Amino acid sequence: MALFGNALLILLIISDTRLHTPMYFFISQLSLMDMMYISVTVPKMLMDQVLGSHKISAAACGIQMFLYGTLVGSEFFLLAAMAYDRYVAICHPLRYPVLMNRRVCLLLMSVCWFLGSLDGFLLTPVTMTFPFCGSHEIHHFFCEVPAVTKLSCSDTWLYETLMYLCCVLMLLIPVVVISSSYSSILLTVHRMNSAEGRKKALVTCSSHMTVVMLFYGAAVYTYMLPASFHTPEKTLWCHPSIEPTNLQS
Fold first, then answer.
1. Full DSSP string of 4-41
2. 201 with 189: CB under 8 angstroms?
3. What are phi and psi of 89, to 5 degrees?
């Protein structure tokens, strides 16, 4: 249903010329990211449940980790770009066609993908080169950096600290952009004399704010709450140097 809904939304935006606007361009990119995001983790999880085999090759684990990191990072920055788009549309409506022309939209989208892929390129190779020993169980239903790092028998304190700082920075920049954009939007809406104009501006932003709260809320629940709040599924993973013909995840 998620794949069908997002694919249908993308097709509608492409086929209807009335939807060829910056706002719907960013929505189509968000739908594309969500389709890819689902495809990275859910099919493997469903196969494991159906076949009863909780295994994955080291290469597939690395690919899954890279794509997951790239898509999460890209979506963080995309939500910031969408907030900026709403800021320009509401606070500078007369200059909107110039400030958010096609070239600017493509540039913003390219920056989002680049910064997201940078996260994947930085974290995945380092994580996969750590020596692993002992238990090869990942307390998660897919390969992600924190879960795999815990399996390393080497000292990863410095790497985890740098990873934490990197993630905080990637979160902080979009949060600042989103907060600044909506602060300006609220001030502009407050100054509007027309009740209809206020309602239209708030309705335009409400859907985006809902997505922001759901996405950031899920991230906070997953990575910032204590482990006692979670009951993750366990899967197995084996480093290729141990058993290359029977790699486990």
1. HHHHHHHHHHHH-GGG-SHHHHHHHHHHHHHHHHHHHH
2. yes
3. -65, -35
9: pLDDT strictly greater than 80: yes
Helices (H), 192-246: 195-223
The domain locations on the chain are 2-41+55-223
What pLDDT, in 10s, does the model give residues 35-82?
998 899 888 888 888 887 778 888 888 899 899 889 988 998 999 999
The answer, as to whether pTM is greater than 0.85, is: no
State the CATH class of domain 2-41+55-223.
mainly alpha
Amino acid at 213: M
Torsion of CA 128, 134, 140, 142, to 10 degrees: 40
Are 31 and 10 contacting, i.e. CB atoms less than 8 angstroms apart?
A: yes
DSSP-based three-state secondary structure for 235:
strand
**Rounded (5°) CA angle 32-35-41:** 140
